[in-house]
Amino acid sequence: MNKPLMRIPYTGPLPAPTIIPRNANTLHGAIAALSTFLTAPLSGALERSSTADPQSTVVLSGAGISVASGLADYRGSNGTYRVNKTYRPIYYHEFLANHEARKRYWARSFLGWTNLHKARPNAAHYAVKKLGEMGIVRSVITQNVDSFHSIAHPEMPTLELHGYLRALTCVTCHNDLPREAFQDALARLNPAWAEFLAEAIASGALDSEDPNERRAKGMKTNPDGDVDLPGAPYSTFRYPACPHCLATPPIAADGTQTKVEVDGEGAWKSTSTAGILKPAVVMFGESIASKVKEAAENAIDGSGRLLVMGTSLATYSAWRLARRAKDRGMPIGILNLGGVRGEELFFQNLPPAQTGEHGVRLEMPTDKILPGLVEQLRRIGFEKPSANISHTNEEAHTNSRVFKDMLS
């Protein structure tokens, strides 16, 4: 009997937001309100609490912040759930149990990885870096798996709530493998697919993330490096086994010896009982590790404000963090195009005359408002002489040092 599929939450449009304060409906007004939100002295219990840095801000970001980098999102105006009504992500239990499902997943990921890998952080990510250098932003919690935050500001504590696509992990031995090495192995095992990908890149078919342009070229693009090619022979796709398990098959939890079998070219065979590699992300239906949840809660508890950016908070793992901030009495700011799950809760009982110090709700692109915010804060004296924004860390597709530190 097949396991019933979980419902994907909030795939339709959410109610339009109420802009707070009212004059934040222009770029100038929005920057002024956000500047006030981030710099106003805190009052009340938070200031007197044991919060590590009550005057600092923790950022909670989502896919919307990476749209300006050319990546697709889920629930934006051109998001996958809006324009591709038949799309659903692969489920964790489905990936583990079904060899054919893994073939389909890795074939689509093979096609999508090139664009995802060459994409780079945008002005919003580097503005967050500057806000950190100014001593305003203390840490970042991101739902994104593109690694852009850790590339743009490697020295700022960054927690990747849902993991990252830059590596794979074995579900048996839990060793990691860099995605670049895995991509090379996929190309070697699937020469016809590799040839098709090379032709698609040469023709420019993968240059646009615009869903209408992709559909015109016979492709459907989805977030997180997923490209669907309707009618493609996914069953022919092959993927490698975990090299660690292949070299030394581990003992299973029940004490039995596992086996890892590959064909003559090194592709994983369905007669194996171990050695399945999965992306180092939290798949739909998979639980977030308890140590990651705890680290996220500590990041909320260690700051005095929460700034939510580029996310509708549709996933409970993110919404619960905003609710935790609200329950602690933290001022909350939301910068997102479109509605946010249960956002009215976060702005209850705000003083009618407040200008942003108690909360802000803005509806503008992050890559437009955040650079202007940085300039505004410079003008009022928040620039540190030693601060130096640099884009030289873009090649650093490595595991986040700070992420590991937070979980150690």
Automatic annotation (TrEMBL):
Residues the record lists as binding Zn(2+): 170, 173, 242, 245
Matches recorded under Pfam families: SIR2
Keyword entries, A-Z: Metal-binding, NAD, Transferase, Zinc
Gene3D superfamilies: SIR2/SIRT2 'Small Domain, TPP-binding domain
InterPro entries: DHS-like_NAD/FAD-binding_dom, Sirtuin, Sirtuin_cat_small_dom_sf, Ssirtuin_cat_dom
Taxonomy, superkingdom: Eukaryota
Catalytic center residues: 162 (proton acceptor)
Region entry Disordered, spans: 207-227
Entry annotated with the keyword Cell membrane: no
UniProt-recorded Gene Ontology molecular function terms: metal ion binding; NAD+ binding; transferase activity
Boundaries of every Deacetylase sirtuin-type domain copy: 32-383
Recorded family membership: Belongs to the sirtuin family. Class I subfamily.
Protein name from the UniProt record: Deacetylase sirtuin-type domain-containing protein
Biological source species: Coleophoma cylindrospora
